């Protein structure tokens, strides 16, 4: 066996011993790399005569072809082994039942909103929504908020560059209360035969009661465990010729007891102040049993609609009277399901949300 046969045999032995692609490439470099043994033999041909070069060159080329064939054979063997390992690791049992795409469910706040709408709908209230980008007049002025009221500050309200069609500043509505006036305008136009409440004249004709709730998204500069910059609110309004504070207590007590499915739930109406109602009251609830038993929990603000707000609706406050309330569906959801951090509703964690499917 000459030196080239020995070299080829040595290459085959080392290639066969390589157990991984990188080991094979290292072995290749020893024989046909830039500094490999076969490459060095080819460099030494410069000292040979032309006849010897032809003979030696042909022998070296033959040895190189044999080494490359052995290299490719081992490379293919390693690739086949790697593929076989992958196939075994990813083997499927075709007798197992197929994996089906999971069915989604409604968000817990959406479930609460639908529940609120259903309960008040059964009491004869309409459900409506309005623009989330509002003008300053509807957000504040029409609701008897004076120009220097803190709620108009940019530290409390998100304002938008530019003005509305009426030239007034635009904001992301901080509450759904603007729909009190918007809905009343539409109601008066419908039953007042085209009457425009913005003309300054009050409508004093016969008109069915206004009963409406307004659930929707609202925005304020606030964020912690119980507040979010984007949150939900549900406004309620009942306005007519013979609507009293007693009706408010009856309606809201019935709603709370139905919502929480607890006929023993206790409510109290605590005196408070809101610019758009007079008198005003915070509404607290108390559970008779459970982890929250004995504690008073605030769930809504309410009151008799202020005469100035009634005038902005285009109605005569000497004839039309009623009440309004505003509650947070997010807080009601927390109480109903025992959630202690509002931010969980907006994190998008499927593990949390899947509990409500």
List the helices and strands and how they pair.
Layout: H1 3-17, H2 21-32, H3 37-43, H4 50-89, H5 108-122, E1 126-127, E2 133-135, H6 136-139, E3 159-163, E4 169-172, H7 178-191, E5 210-219, E6 230-240, H8 245-259, E7 266-274, E8 277-286, E9 297-305, H9 307-312, E10 321-327, H10 329-337, H11 350-353
Parallel strand pairs: 1-5
Antiparallel strand pairs: 2-4, 3-4, 5-6, 6-10, 7-8, 8-9, 9-10
Helix pairs in contact: 1-2, 1-4, 2-4, 5-10
What does this structure look like?
This protein has 357 residues and is of the alpha+beta class. The protein folds into two domains: 3-89, Methane Monooxygenase Hydroxylase, Chain G, domain 1 (Up-down Bundle), CATH 1.20.58; 110-356, BirA Bifunctional Protein, domain 2 (2-Layer Sandwich). The protein has helices at residues 3-17, 21-32, 37-43, 50-89, 108-122, 136-139, 178-191, 245-259, 307-312, 329-337, 350-353; strands spanning 126-127, 133-135, 159-163, 169-172, 210-219, 230-240, 266-274, 277-286, 297-305, 321-327. The strands form two sheets. A seven-stranded mixed sheet has the order 1-5-6-10-9-8-7. The chain has a three-stranded antiparallel sheet with strand order 2-4-3. The longest helix is centred in the first third of the chain and has 40 residues, at 50-89. The two termini are 79 Å apart. The relative contact order is 0.11.
How would you sum up the major sheet? Answer: 7 strands, mixed
How far apart the termini lie comes to 79 Å
Tell me, briefly, the overall form.
elongated
CATH architecture of the largest domain: 2-Layer Sandwich
CATH class categorisation of the largest domain: Alpha Beta
**Could you state the order of secondary-structure elements as H and E?**
HHHHHEEHEEHEEHEEEHEHH
* Class inferred from helices and paired strands: alpha+beta
Please give the count of helices. Answer: 11
Uncertain ranges: none
Average pLDDT reading: 86
| Tally of separate domains | 2
CATH topology of the largest domain: BirA Bifunctional Protein, domain 2
Strand content: 15-25%
């Amino acid at each position: 066996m000459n030196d080239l046969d020995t070299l080829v045999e040595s290459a085959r032995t080392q290639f066969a011993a390589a157990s991984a692609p990188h080991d094979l490439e290292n072995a290749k470099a020893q024989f046909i790399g830039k500094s490999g043994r076969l490459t060095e033999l080819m460099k030494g041909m410069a000292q040979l005569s032309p006849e010897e070069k032809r003979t030696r060159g042909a022998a070296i080329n033959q040895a190189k072809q044999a080494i490359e064939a052995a290299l490719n054979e081992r490379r293919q063997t390693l690739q086949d082994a790697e593929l076989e390992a992958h196939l075994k690791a990813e083997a499927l049992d075709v007798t197992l039942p197929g994996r089906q795409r999971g069915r989604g469910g409604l968000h817990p706040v959406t479930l609460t909103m639908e529940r609120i709408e259903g309960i008040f709908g059964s009491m004869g209230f309409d459900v409506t929504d309005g623009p989330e980008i509002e003008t300053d007049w509807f957000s504040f002025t029409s609701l008897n908020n004076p120009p220097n009221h803190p709620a108009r500050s940019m530290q409390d309200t998100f304002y938008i560059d530019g003005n509305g069609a009426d030239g007034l500043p635009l904001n992301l509505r901080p509450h759904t209360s603007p729909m009190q006036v918007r809905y009343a305008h539409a109601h008066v136009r419908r039953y007042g035969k085209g009457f425009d409440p913005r003309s300054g004249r009050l409508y004093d004709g016969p008109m069915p009661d206004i009963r409406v709730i307004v659930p929707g998204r609202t925005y304020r500069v606030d964020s912690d465990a119980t507040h979010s910059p984007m949150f939900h609110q549900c406004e309620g309004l009942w306005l007519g010729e013979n609507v009293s504070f007693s009706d408010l207590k009856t309606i809201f007590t019935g709603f709370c007891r139905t919502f929480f499915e607890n006929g023993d739930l206790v409510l109290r109406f605590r005196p408070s102040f809101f610019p758009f109602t007079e008198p005003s009251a915070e509404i607290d609830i108390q559970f008779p049993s459970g982890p929250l038993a004995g504690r008073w929990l605030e769930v809504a603000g309410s009151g008799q609609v202020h005469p100035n707000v009634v005038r902005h609706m285009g109605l005569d406050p000497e004839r039309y009277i009623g009440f309004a309330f505003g509650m947070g569906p997010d807080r009601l959801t927390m109480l109903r399901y025992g959630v202690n951090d509002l931010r969980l509703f907006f994190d998008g964690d499927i593990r949390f949300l899947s509990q409500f499917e």
